Amino acid sequence: MVAGADHGDKFKRDMGYSAAEFFRILPSAVAGYEHTVDDGRVVIRHPDEDRELVLRISELPERRIGMMRIPRIEVEFAFHNFPPQERQGFLIAFDRSYQRGGG
C-alpha cells in the first residue's frame, strides 16, 4: 500500500492497555461505524461506503516503571478506501476515546 500524507494506510501503535480494557472501550471508540470482533481482529466498516479498517491486536510484555506495571498491546491499523481526511477524523475520535485522564 502507498502511504498517505498523515499516518498512511497501515501502521502500528503500542498502547498502554490490556486486551480486555481495549475491547471494553472499543464500542465507544468506533461509534457510528459497524464493527465485528474475532479473536484479536476487529473489522470496522463505514455504514454507507465501501470503507474498511482492520485492527489486529497483539499482547506485548508489560512495561515496568519501578513498582508500577503497565499492560501493553500492539494495535495494527490497516485502512482500506478511507480518504485521508476521513481517516484523520476517525483517528482523532478514536484517540480521544482511549485517552486516559491525568492530573
Description:
With 103 residues, this protein is an alpha+beta fold. The protein has one domain (10-59, 69-98): 2-Layer Sandwich (TATA-Binding Protein), CATH 3.30.310.80. The chain contains two helices and five strands. A five-stranded antiparallel sheet has the order 1-5-4-3-2, with no helix packed on it. Strand 4 (52-65) and strand 5 form a beta hairpin. The longest helix has 15 residues, at 84-98. The radius of gyration is 14 Å and the shape is elongated. The N and C termini lie far apart (40 Å).
> Which CATH architecture would you pick?
2-Layer Sandwich
Give me the side-by-side strand order of the main sheet.
1-5-4-3-2
Quaternary status of these chains?
Answer: single chain
The CATH homologous superfamily is called Kinase associated domain 1, KA1
Helix content: 25-40%
What is the residue-averaged pLDDT? 89
| SSE run | EHEEEEH
CATH topology title: TATA-Binding Protein
Distance between the termini: 40 Å
Structural class: alpha+beta
Q: Please indicate the percent range of residues in DSSP E strands (runs of 2 or more).
A: 35-45%
Rounded Rg: 14 Å
Count of DSSP helices? 2
